[in-house]
Amino acid sequence: MFLCMIMVVLLFPMTVNADMGPKASVRIQFEHMGDELCYGTLLSKEKSTGPASAWDGRTESAQKEYMDPGIWKIFVNYKDPDGYYFLQRSWKVSESKELAWTYYPPGDFKILLYYPETETFVSSGIYARYAFDTYYTVDMDGVDIGSVEYNDDLSTNERIEAYRSYNYRQEMLALGARIVLTILIEMLVALLFGFRQKKQLLILAVVNIITQIILNVLLNVINYNSGPLAFTFFYVLFELIVFALEAVLYCTILKRLSEKKKEDAYYILYSFVANLISFGAGLFLAAKLPGMF
After folding, report:
1. What does UniProt give as the signal peptide span (predicted)?
2. Backbone torsions φ then ψ of 156, nearest 5 degrees
3. Are residues 107 and 238 in the same domain?
């Protein structure tokens, strides 16, 4: 029966497409936005990104299911003065005060808002994704939404300005917390392994401070640019490298400074256990406190 199943699969193959892992995102926050009904989108420099694409005039390529058909038509008819494309995606931003494009967002884009009650468009200048998860904020205070009228030869002069709002302060605090917690865990494990001499603890502290700062800074850079999937992969890889490096240092420096010298396997075991516990604690806290770890 098993061989027959294999024969059937070989005789009647089919194509399977898989899409896994987190995707980059662009989030636009609108401060001081009024309650007027407003739709927003990102105009793209390219004609397509992921499954989203500009309408080519064919009925079968119209992606009206993603938005209100009437709003879809209005956005399709919009003529951007810089030649940017509407990719058939829009959001009712007056409700959430946010435009969140979380699946293959455009790399270079413009922000475009449409107010149906006054048939008014308001646009921004050109911006770009600067991180895996890109954040911008737009202050709508003082923006005159009645200054641009909708017409067949539409071009907009009203500009809204966005500024980068990635929370670097929170990331630095999280980085510091991860480093301190990891060092504390590994020092506690050292005490359990009987490393209590001042020289021993000093060497352990210095080695852990250096390796953990390098490790966490690299992981922060990777997460910033490539996202959580790459972060997880390199987290495991870097932990293995740190374990091997620390094991070598402990077998040489720590063993030489110890009054009661032990076999190399003992120092290797400490390095393995300490890194395993800190690694497990990091994964656990990443699930429980994603904003901090």
Report:
1. 1-18
2. -110, 140
3. no
Q: Shortest CA distance to 190 belongs to which of 173, 176, 202, 179? A: 202
User: Which range of residues forms the domain containing residue 235?
Assistant: 170-288
Token digits for 101?
């494009």
Residue 151 pLDDT class (50, 70, 90 cuts): very low
**Amino acid 175: pLDDT:** 80
Indicate whether 193 and 57 sit together in one domain: no
Predicted local confidence at residue 148, as pLDDT:
42
Which residue has tokens 């490298």? 241
Average pLDDT over residues 85-111: 94
Overall pTM > 0.85 = no
182 in the same domain as 152:
no
Number of domains in the chain: 2
Structure tokens at 238: 């870097």
Identify which of 85, 73, 1 has the alpha carbon closest to the alpha carbon of residue 45.
Answer: 85
pLDDT per residue over 28-48, tens digit each?
Answer: 999 999 889 999 999 999 999
Q: Is the pLDDT of residue 207 over 80?
A: yes
Query: What does the alpha-carbon distance between residue 188 and residue 195 come to, in Å, rounded to a whole number?
Result: 10
- Tell me the per-residue pLDDT of 52-91, one tens digit each, with 9 for 90 and over: 999 999 988 898 887 888 999 999 999 998 999 999 999 9
> CB neighbours (10 Å) of residue 291?
8
128 and 177 part of one domain: no
**Is there a single domain that holds both residue 231 and residue 180?**
yes
How far is the C-alpha of 215 from the C-alpha of 245, rounded, in Å? Answer: 12
Q: Where are the strands (E) in 83-223, listed by range?
A: 85-86, 91-92, 98-101, 108-115, 120-128, 133-139, 159-160, 162-164
Asked if residue 3 is part of any domain, the answer here is: no
